């Protein structure tokens, strides 16, 4: 069983950022990942290429998929190559393809064998407002991918915007 402490692993090696996400990936344990995404966008982490390893992920909710979409959007905005996503989990892959992440990532359905030290990313102490904004931004990133996702998640975004004022 994956403990929350080693659910999100991160390394930046020669400006290539590696994310290894493990276990059940839900909005309730996404604050560490959201913080990493924010640090990328604010240029606290220098990154020219992104690699995401989902081979040990057993479940992902839409918030986590939206955080992945945010990573892809970061690469687009920075004129970087499409991020690479490794996943051998059939259920996770089905979800990725159904939400069109294959348009934003190069999805490679094979295992990885990274040979470098990765740091465990801790959950961040978010307020309810911050958690709400994280969920909102993740779903907005999903909607930005394509129209199919817009029809699926626009109502979630609308409700969150109302609740967050």
Short characterization:
With 165 residues, the protein is of the alpha/beta class. It contains 5 helices and 6 strands, in the order ββαβαβαββαα.
Structure description:
This protein has helices spanning 31-41, 62-77, 90-98, 128-145, 147-164; strands at residues 8-13, 16-25, 49-60, 84-86, 106-108, 119-120. The protein contains five helices and six strands. It is globular. The model has no long low-confidence stretch (mean pLDDT 93). The longest helix is centred in the C-terminal third of the chain and has 18 residues, at 128-145. Strand 4 (84-86), helix 3 (90-98) and strand 5 form a beta-alpha-beta unit. It is of the alpha/beta class. It has a six-stranded mixed sheet.
DSSP strand tally: 6
Percent of residues in beta strands?
15-25%
Uncertain runs: none
For the largest beta sheet, what order do the strands appear in spatially? 5-4-3-2-1-6
Span between termini: 38 Å
State the order of secondary-structure elements, H for helix, E for strand.
Answer: EEHEHEHEEHH
State the secondary-structure class. Answer: alpha/beta
Give the fraction of residues assigned to helices: 40-55%
Shape: globular
What Rg, in angstroms, do the CA atoms define? 15 Å
- Give the rounded overall mean pLDDT: 93
Number of helices: 5
What's the main sheet like?
Answer: 6 strands, mixed
């Amino acid at each position: 069983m994956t403990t929350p402490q080693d659910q999100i692993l991160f390394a930046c090696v020669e400006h290539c950022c590696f994310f290894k996400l493990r276990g059940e990936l839900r909005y309730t344990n996404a604050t560490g990942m959201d913080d990493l995404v924010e640090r990328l966008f604010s240029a606290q982490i220098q990154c020219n290429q992104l690699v995401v390893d989902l081979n040990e992920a057993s479940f992902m909710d839409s918030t986590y998929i939206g955080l992945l979409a945010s990573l892809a959007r970061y690469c687009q905005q920075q004129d970087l190559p499409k991020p690479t996503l490794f996943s051998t989990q059939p259920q996770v892959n089905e979800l990725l393809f159904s939400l069109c992440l294959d348009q934003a990532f190069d999805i490679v359905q094979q295992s990885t064998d990274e040979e470098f030290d990765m740091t465990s990313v801790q959950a961040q102490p978010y307020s309810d407002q911050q958690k709400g904004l994280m969920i909102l931004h993740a779903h907005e990133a999903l909607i930005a991918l394509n129209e199919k996702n817009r029809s699926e998640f626009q109502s979630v975004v609308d409700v969150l915007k109302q609740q967050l004022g």
